[in-house]
Design brief:
By secondary structure, the chain is α+β, with helices and mostly antiparallel strands. Helix content is 14%, strand content 22%. It is built from one helix and four strands. Strands 1-2 form a two-stranded antiparallel sheet. It has a two-stranded antiparallel sheet with strand order 3-4.
């Protein structure tokens, strides 16, 4: 995570970068870092990936048929 000072009145408004911290964090569904900043602007909330377990992918084939089967089996007419 990098921070830069910004001064809109300066000739060069973007200042030097400062590395706040380095770590591996989880990405969201769009490939962006998943984090948020606390309202006080002093803290972050970040998701850390579980590096011990590989990611899981579930594939559901014939989804509509399965939903029909599940919902129709619970109804008695």
């Amino acid at each position: 995570m990098i921070a830069v000072e910004f001064d809109s009145d300066a000739e060069s408004p973007v200042g030097e970068e400062t590395v706040l911290f380095e770590a591996v964090f989880e990405f969201d569904a769009y490939g962006d870092q998943s984090y948020d900043v606390f309202p006080d602007g002093q803290s972050f909330v970040m998701m850390v990936p579980d590096l011990e377990s590989p990611p899981k992918l579930f594939v559901i084939t014939e989804f509509l048929e399965e939903m029909n089967r599940l919902f129709s089996s619970g109804q008695s007419k």
